[in-house]
């Protein structure tokens, strides 16, 4: 179902104490500033998922993992399976983040398997797509995003697809302070919604949640979120500050 979502991707940040403190601060801020009709999602490092689920019993937010194994349970040292995440009540899991594609060589095949695993266990994938700077500059950005989406999630059935959230994260905007302009974000989000419409029909396209990520912060969130096809954000750096994160969540 199309919903407004603000998700914080903590990436590989925070010690256990800092994670605990940040969750506590987010809880405090939410007490007098609970965003209306917005789903808040926190994606901490896997080690702190249990801590976050404990907080989530008291505070209104959902929990997402940052990664999942492409394999089912078994002899895969260091991996975490979709079944394990599901046994810890994960709501979401990020898949296809550009950092995983780039530093860990995750191919579309691997990502598509990860999506399948998550859906088998009732966890909603937040599937990330986005072009690199040279791909934007050479006007290849639509083609890149189209192939990432086709290869990663367009093999799903309609009912499987209805559980997927898409995040458009232009790589040149991630952690750089160079946000996509609201027009650039809207243009790509509308394009993605059209792709979904062509593949799964207008109704499904209308129901699909498409988030923007890439240097989204407390100052620019409102303008980005006011775009017709931008349903919220996947926030990196600014999600590590409770006040900024809650301000972003209240930016609709
Ligand atoms: P920044 O908000 O730090 O640019 O990161 C965005 C991101 O990669 C979220 O997944």
Task: Describe what is shown at a glance.
The protein is of the alpha/beta class and 252 residues long. It has a single domain, classed as Aldolase class I (TIM Barrel), CATH 3.20.20.70. The protein has helices at 16-32, 49-56, 82-87, 98-103, 108-120, 133-137, 141-153, 158-161, 182-200, 202-207, 221-225, 242-249; strands at residues 4-9, 38-43, 62-65, 92-95, 124-129, 165-168, 210-212, 232-235.
Give the arrangement of secondary structure elements.
Layout: E1 4-9, H1 16-32, E2 38-43, H2 49-56, E3 62-65, H3 82-87, E4 92-95, H4 98-103, H5 108-120, E5 124-129, H6 133-137, H7 141-153, H8 158-161, E6 165-168, H9 182-200, H10 202-207, E7 210-212, H11 221-225, E8 232-235, H12 242-249
Parallel strand pairs: 1-2, 1-8, 2-3, 3-4, 4-5, 5-6, 6-7
Helix pairs in contact: 1-12, 5-7, 7-9
Bound molecules: 1,3-dihydroxyacetonephosphate.
1,3-dihydroxyacetonephosphate (13P) binds at residues 9, 97, 169, 174-175, 213-216, 234-238.
């Amino acid at each position: 179902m199309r919903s407004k979502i603000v998700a914080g991707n903590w990436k590989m940040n925070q010690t256990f104490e800092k994670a605990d403190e940040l969750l506590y601060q987010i809880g405090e801020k939410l007490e007098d500033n609970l965003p209306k009709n917005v789903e808040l999602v926190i994606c901490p490092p896997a080690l702190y998922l249990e801590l976050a689920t404990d907080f989530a019993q008291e505070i209104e937010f959902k929990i997402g993992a940052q990664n999942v194994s492409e394999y089912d349970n078994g002899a895969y040292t260091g991996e975490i399976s979709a079944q394990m995440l599901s046994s810890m009540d994960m709501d979401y899991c990020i898949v296809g983040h550009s950092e995983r594609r780039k530093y860990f060589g995750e191919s579309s095949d691997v990502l598509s398997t990860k999506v399948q695993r998550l859906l088998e266990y009732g966890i909603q994938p937040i599937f990330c797509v986005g072009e690199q700077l040279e791909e934007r500059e050479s006007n290849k950005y639509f083609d890149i995003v189209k192939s990432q989406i086709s290869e990663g999630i367009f093999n799903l059935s309609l009912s499987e697809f209805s559980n997927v959230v898409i995040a458009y994260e232009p790589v040149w905007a991630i952690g750089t302070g160079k946000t996509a302009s609201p027009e650039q974000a809207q243009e790509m989000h509308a394009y993605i919604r059209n792709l979904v419409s062509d593949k799964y029909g207008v109704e499904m396209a209308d129901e699909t949640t498409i988030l923007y990520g890439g240097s989204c912060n407390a100052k620019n969130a409102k303008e980005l979120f006011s775009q017709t096809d931008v349903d919220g954000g996947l926030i990196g750096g600014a999600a590590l500050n409770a006040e900024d994160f809650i301000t972003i969540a209240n930016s609709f």
